[in-house]
Amino acid sequence: MSSDTESLREILEGLTEIAVIYANRLAELKIGPITERVASFGYYNPKEGRIQIEEVARMICQCGKVGLTLNVFYLPNTCDVGHPIDEIIPDYVRRLFTRLKRDDWYITILPRIVSKAVLNFTFLRTQLIEWYLCDKNNVPCLCFIICDEIEGKKNNCPYLSVVPSSSYSECTNDRGPSFCMGYTGRVFCPFTKRKRIPWVVIQATIRDYPRSRLVAVKQLSNLKDPLHKFLAI
Hints:
Radius of gyration: 19 Å
Distance between the termini: 42 Å
Number of strands: 9
Order of helices and strands: HEHEEEHHEHEEEHHEH
Low-confidence stretches: none
Mean pLDDT: 90
Number of helices: 8
């Protein structure tokens, strides 16, 4: 890497740090401390992607936290009303990223102004970038998938905890990634067999368990119980 490129990278990182500081200050004034802010990330498509992302943000809101997406945020007790995310991003921050010709500034900033994040990995899009930024900034993540098979007919992974009454299952591996048995093919694991969450995400989530979690739900509404437990930690 040339010295000019390195210098430019350092300048961009410095400007991003300043942008995060000012965005955090405005967010604290308008919606409260960072401990009360939780991000909802997921895949976008014309049919249901954005709807699901915002539905998760409303679930977060119903748990008494502020639910934020890349487009809107929801305040506790007014979960049906979405506020534009621009309300907590200072104008000069938006202008700064516009001048830098960076259209990913929401993704760059949002993981830095929340205390936790919920990521829908049912279909893989940009969530890996969002997850990476959360992981880099030590933000605990609930990573979930929606699938019909949350447990196997036989030979479930011994670390797969199934909650039939709430239609979800969860990885409870607290021994480390080397004990993950899903990739051996000898046991059933919804995260490696059905939707295949990226291995780097599985590894990091297991290392951070129980702060971070891997959950499989039959439908989005089944996320409420594991979400409540995740936010309560």
